[in-house]
Amino acid sequence: MDRTEEQFLAVLAALDNPHRLRIITALHRNGRNYVSQLARELNISRPLLHLHLQKLEEAKLVTSQLELSGDGKALNYFEVTDFQLLLSPATITDVVGEQ
After folding, report:
1. Domain enclosing residue 47, as ranges
2. Residue 58: exposed, middle, or buried by beta-carbon count in 10 A (0-12, 13-18, 19+)?
3. Within a domain: residue 20?
4. Hey, which of 11, 36, 93, 95 has its CA 20 to 30 A from 46?
5. Which tens digit of pLDDT belongs to each residue from 21-77?
6. Is 61:55 a contact under the CB 8 Å cutoff?
7. How far apart are CA 24 and CA 42, in angstroms?
8. Inter-axis angle of helices 3-14 and 89-96, to 10 degrees?
9. Are 78 and 35 in contact (CB under 8 A)?
10. 61 within a domain of the structure (yes/no)
């Protein structure tokens, strides 16, 4: 499996979860956000959110940046990347190629 095919499968796997779709929607609508606030908004635990954010980040659908708040706390901000996914037989054939 080449890198392109591996990345394509990672994107599909990352999008195959309702929590992750909700995360992308929240980040797209509201802009970048830090983990604790995003967990409150989505009403899920921070450990579960971290798990889903990690999967999204591995698929390059979100990015993160660690920043210090005014009171010195480290806040990990996430934002959705600018991606577009065209899923069609032709796209799959282009990615997978000939086996």
Report:
1. 3-82
2. middle
3. yes
4. 11
5. 999 999 999 999 999 999 999 999 999 999 999 999 999 999 999 998 889 888 999
6. no
7. 11
8. 140
9. yes
10. yes
Helix (H) or strand (E) holding 78: strand 74-80
Cβ atoms 56, 24 nearer than 8 A: yes
State the CB neighbour count (10 A cutoff) for residue 61.
Answer: 21
CATH code of the domain in which 71 resides: 1.10.10.10
The two beta strands, 62-68 and 33-34, are: unpaired
Distance CA 76, CA 67 (A): 6
The strand pairing partners of 33, in sequence order, are 78
How much is the pTM?
Answer: 0.87
**7 within domain boundaries:** yes
State how far the alpha carbon of 46 is from the alpha carbons of 34, 36, 58, 76, 91, in Å. Answer: 11, 7, 18, 12, 35
The domain tally of the chain equals 1
| DSSP structure string for 14-56 | HTSSHHHHHHHHHHHHH--EEHHHHHHHHT--HHHHHHHHHHH
